[in-house]
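Changelog-linked ticket: S-adenosylmethionine example.
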Amino acid sequence: NPGLYIVATPIGNLQDVSARAETTLRSADLILAEDSRVTSKLLNHLGIRKPVAAYHDHNAEKVRPGLVAQMADKAIALVSDAGTPLISDPGYKLVRDARAEGHMVTSIPGPCAAIAALTLAGLPTDRFLFAGFLPAKAKARDDAIAELGAVRATLVFYESGPRLGKSLAALAQGLGEREAAVAREISKTFEETVTDTLGALAARYAETPPKGEIVIVIAPPGEAAAASDTEIDAALADALERLP
Ligand code: SAM
């Protein structure tokens, strides 16, 4: 059927492509990819030969109207280099405009590094805030961290190996000592998850930047740190009442 298909692809292990993702790509009229070289690896693996067009941050504005118009009679699949499109990847404006034109929009869910990392960290998952990549510049990065300090939720960041040490140091500085996890190369040969306090993780990765793709998961602020004045007053009153 014509419309827009948001297709999640593997984040490393090609076996993670779902049966429905495969069927959808096989029957699509056009596949939109961030980088056609990356996507052709997956398509070759599946033995799929379909027209692939580029849809990335640098051409999206220009090509979007034409693509949306084509959705009236074509099945168009959007993929990204890895994982779920739109998650720290292009696509939300394409979905928005496709909807505005009344086209069918559907999602073929699958791998997502943020969700996989949450399942590995052993930290609370009932409330989490996905913060994507921290800004590259120190001032903007520290401001972003300060803004997240009071959020009572597990925090999830995407990161690259070379930047990991500096980011962890800034996070330890800005958020204080919290339990955290560094999940690396999920679903690949050298998958590894290291859990420790932020400070200890910062020290560990300060010298030797690890290789590969990384997700940082950080515990919510501790109960003591997050207690409000009212909660502290109530606890004090309670303690005073129990005093002999
Ligand atoms: N859309 C993707 C998703 O659904 O996870 C994320 C795209 S974002 C541009 C790329 C970042 O995702 C990497 O820098 C890394 O932080 C994270 N990532 C992707 N694959 C990963 C993997 N196999 N292991 C750990 N992190 C990964």
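Closing comment: Example verified and attached. The longest helix spans residues 161-175. The two ends are 76 Å apart (CA to CA).
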